[in-house]
Amino acid sequence: MLFYFYVEKPNDFSEVFFKVQELLKKEGGEIRGDEQKGTILSHGVLGEYEVLEEYILIKIKKKPLFVPNKLIEKEIKKIFSSLQ
User: Which residue from 32, 30, 28, 12 is spatially nearest to 83, judged by alpha carbons?
Assistant: First the structure.
């Protein structure tokens, strides 16, 4: 694992999860898994997610060399906040 971070779990998580799946699909990425855990692949970034009680744990396993960790974290958090 390269790094990990947490995203606050939205109240309407099922709806947001569906929207994230659709967004990633449009951009050439994908989610393999369900509303509890799985993998994410998008733009050369490979990660795993696990839904906890109040947060979503995101573990980044692989990324392009020149993409900063903070940028990946910022973009993933931005996606979740924009879809709530």
Answer: 12
Q: Which residue segment(s) compose the domain that 22 sits in?
A: 3-82
Model confidence over 26-79: pLDDT tens digits? Answer: 999 999 999 999 999 999 999 999 999 999 999 999 999 999 999 999 999 998
Total-model pTM:
0.90
Residue 53: which residues within 8 A CB-CB, separation 6 or more?
9
Determine which helix (DSSP H) or strand (DSSP E) holds 66, and give its type and residue range.
Answer: none
How many whole angstroms separate alpha carbon 25 and alpha carbon 27? Answer: 5
Q: Which two tokens stand for residue 78?
A: 């931005």
Q: What is the CATH number of the domain that holds 19?
A: 3.30.310
Count of domains for the chain: 1
